[in-house]
Amino acid sequence: MLLDTASLYYRAYFGVPDSVKAPDGTPVNAVRGLLDFIGRLVQDHRPDDLVACMDADWRPHWRVELIPSYKAHRVAQETPSGPDVEETPDTLAPQVPIIEAALDAFGIARVGVAGYEADDVIGTLTGRATGPVDIVTGDRDLYQLVDDAKRRRVLYPLKGVGTLQVTDEAWLREKYGVDGPGYADLALLRGDPSDGLPGVPGIGEKTAAKLLDAYGDLAGIIAAIEDPTSKLTPTQRKRLDESRPYLAVAPKVVQVASDVPLPPFDPALPATAAQPDLVAALAHRWGLSGAVERLGSALRL
Fold first, then answer.
1. Alpha-carbon distance 130 to 15, whole Å?
2. What predicted TM-score, i.e. pTM, was given to this entire model?
3. Which residues touch 78 (CB under 8 Å, ≥6 apart)?
4. What is the DSSP letter of 299?
5. What is the DSSP letter of 144?
6. Element (H, E) at 166
7. Is the CB of residue 114 less than 8 Å from the CB of residue 57?
8. Reduced to 3 DSSP states, what percent helix, strand and coil does the chain have, rounded to the nearest 5?
9. Which residues make Cβ contacts (< 8 Å) with residue 243, sequence separation at least 6?
10. 4 three-state secondary structure
11. Rounded CA gap, 27 and 210, in Å?
12. pLDDT tens digits, 270-299
């Protein structure tokens, strides 16, 4: 089980009241919510391995070089020597170090790699897996990793993590008319304002799905531009042709990396907390006794 950790703690932050605070008044709603999410996932799914994948760089420079608008609207401060500062709620950012400390104290593997997003870590781990993989995320970009033959699916939270949309190939075809790899092509053709991806003007989700159904993939669509016998409309042909520079670089931006240089780590789900004294100290310091107890109980089941 691979967790898109930032996606989940964002959901926890907005789903758990900000009245949940430490004894000193520090908000810890995202921390408590994430620990409860993990406890529920462990209880319901009993994964052999569990990895909390982290955004060491939420807006990698190599993606920005290809498409400068990539996540540009979410930049709070540019940092020439390192990752840009992302615009986040004032009371969320201070909770991230607490989340990291709690995961480490429990012994839950936490993996982030400089220059890469959590999606890229997930893509690399998924590619290396020899057994089934469940990806837990509120980010539809990871639908591209769905593969029934390799038993790879996305669990998308609808209401907390107690109600999950199980995203497999049948669901993708029903909803979007594509399979996993086809979702990446659909996303780049359609564009995604939340990620600053412009897409092809005039090509929405339904048109993108129809083009992919007709021509197979992005390469097939590009070949159709030059084929006078293809059934592209004059407007589609013109817009796709004018978008060639974007279409040449967009796949590398949209597709998750599969070759991230991962550090050594132990993905095994711990049966008990790795550092029980530290867990107890964190629970006391941040007023998280209930969440810590619930996660500990789930691990011991």
1. 34
2. 0.95
3. 84, 85
4. H
5. G
6. strand 163-167
7. yes
8. 50, 15, 35
9. 200, 201
10. strand
11. 47
12. 999 999 999 999 999 999 999 999 999 999
